[in-house]
Amino acid sequence: PMSYETILVEKKGNVTLITLNRPQALNALNSRVLEDLIQAFAAFEADRTQGCAVLTGLGEKAFAAGADIKEMVDKAGAEFYAQDFFAGWTSQIVKTTRKPWIAAVNGFALGGGCELAMMADFIIASENARFGQPEIKLGVAPGMGGSQRLARAVGKAKAMDMCLTGRMMDAAEAERTGLVSRVVPLDQLLAEALAAAEAIAAMPPLAAMMNKEMVNMAFETTLDTGLILERRMFQVLASTEDKAEGMAAFVEKRPGTWKGQ
Ligand code: CAA
């Protein structure tokens, strides 16, 4: 297995568990974390035994308290633009991970931490989770998708409230507003997220990838175009061996077995 400096990666059957491992900095996201996550997600994506991933933070306090402020404090302004700082999160994790993955948010998910959680296909939160985009208090603004994904997730009123006041949302408000799909006690968070991931990993894999792609399409296109794309993807899935098996298994009242083709 590969070893990483800032994350832990474990394969649990068909599920990859990735744990942010800088608890002394509340799992703040620096360039090394990004490099490690790019490697880990690429390995997950390439491994045919792995069907779903879970991303969480080590410790009881934080999923991730944001981009690493200590890495940014002395960085020259023009460098952020010259390096296209933060671009890799979208280009090398979100866009290249076609398999489903879940964020299990176990505490603070602030700034880049909230943004990283929102890159997941869905979020399961512990009761002590806190979400926020406090960048405004630092004289900046979200840089890893917060303004765009939060607005899409919870609508304009809540997104503006969060970005302009920098306040935190608790787990109940996050569930009520649709930011997270489930809230569970902290001591059940990992079990709940891993069980959800196992359920997904047990699905026909091409169908899992296309379901993910379809839902994401809803945020990229008009309804008419999205509906056409949805039908085309359905029609593509209908030609797979797993469709033949899945429907036959239903009719024959037995569990299906999947080939991923
Ligand atoms: N970057 C670097 N270090 C961080 C950090 C961050 N985002 N968040 C916390 N830490 C460090 C602290 O500096 C501290 O380290 P030391 O012990 O060496 O001083 C350690 O983690 C523990 O943190 P605190 O002592 O502050 O813990 P607390 O319980 O008093 O407060 C907190 C917890 C409210 C989450 C507070 O740490 C906090 O406000 N953190 C910063 C949150 C923030 O502003 N995030 C946005 C960052 S900018 C960004 O993310 C840009 C973007 O859009 C991509």
From TrEMBL:
Its EC number is 4.2.1.17. Pfam families: ECH_1 (PF00378). The keyword Acyltransferase does not apply. One of its GO terms (biological process) is fatty acid beta-oxidation. It catalyses: a 4-saturated-(3S)-3-hydroxyacyl-CoA = a (3E)-enoyl-CoA + H2O; a (3S)-3-hydroxyacyl-CoA = a (2E)-enoyl-CoA + H2O. Could possibly oxidize fatty acids using specific components. This is enoyl-CoA hydratase. It comes from Novosphingobium lindaniclasticum LE124.
